[in-house]
Design brief:
The protein is an alpha/beta fold. The chain is built from 8 helices and 7 strands, in the order αβαααβββαβαβαβα. The protein starts with a helix and ends in a 10-residue tail after the last helix.
């Protein structure tokens, strides 16, 4: 076996071991068990994720160093995967944010979009009073973060018998914050990723949730410049 191949295999094995070790360290782990806090800001959260990716890339792609030395490749052959790839992935990958540590809702906002997608933190989690109160808090907070619209798709908007839950109380509370609610059934081909995720995490075969029946809720938020002038009464749900 040529010495070059031995060095490459050795470097690959060592880099994989170091990459696994990085996942055990909080500051370099790619996978975060908890979502980023909204107070961290959407851009800062993606920068943090990009740095985590960069730390892992520097380890897992270590065998490239051998090829650079042996084949005398240009600097762009390793600058591209080491720098640009983590930035591109962090910019496009859906990163979750939450308002508090024990939040029941998490959200994702694409870097260049004013629309935030909200969903339940756990699969098959109930829409209880605390969930709706937290949604109202997001309605008050997100306009200051550049968000103009919230979307939420879920089969939980339906009762087990297939009847749609009422949105009248939520609409009333949203009107106090100059937010407007609209909703409609999701098309049969929509929410594919959500359907697959919930199907894979189905708690039992006798679950009453119909995963083929989804509803989409959209909340248009007030302009952040007008928010300071609005009065917000106490919320009762």
């Amino acid at each position: 076996m040529p010495d070059t191949l031995i060095y490459v295999l050795l470097g690959a094995n060592l880099s994989l071991l170091f990459a696994c070790a990085l996942q055990l360290i909080p500051c370099t782990s790619i996978y975060k068990k908890s979502a980023y806090p909204i107070e961290m800001a959407f851009l800062k959260g993606r920068i943090d994720f990009a740095l985590r990716l960069l730390a892992t890339f520097l380890v897992t792609l270590a065998p490239i160093y051998v090829f650079v030395l042996i084949r005398e490749l240009t600097v762009w052959h390793f600058v591209l995967p080491f720098l640009f790839a983590p930035i591109i992935i962090a910019a496009l990958f859906p990163i979750e944010f939450q308002r508090t540590i024990d939040a029941k809702l998490v959200l994702n906002k694409p870097l260049w979009s004013p629309v935030a997608t909200v969903h339940l933190k756990e699969h098959y989690q109930r829409f209880d009073r605390d969930t709706y109160l937290e949604l109202i808090e997001l309605v008050k907070l997100l306009p200051n973060k550049g968000v103009t619209k919230i979307t939420m798709a879920s089969p939980m908007f339906y009762y087990p018998n297939g009847e749609l839950r009422s949105f009248r109380l939520l609409e009333k509370q949203l009107s106090y914050h100059n937010a407007k609610l609209s909703h409609s059934p999701a098309p049969w081909f929509g929410c594919i990723i959500g359907k697959i995720s919930m199907l894979l995490n189905k708690p039992d075969a006798n679950s009453t949730i119909n995963l083929r029946q989804w509803h989409i809720m959209t909340i248009d938020l007030e302009n952040k410049n007008d928010q300071a002038n609005s009065t917000s009464p106490r919320v009762y749900l």
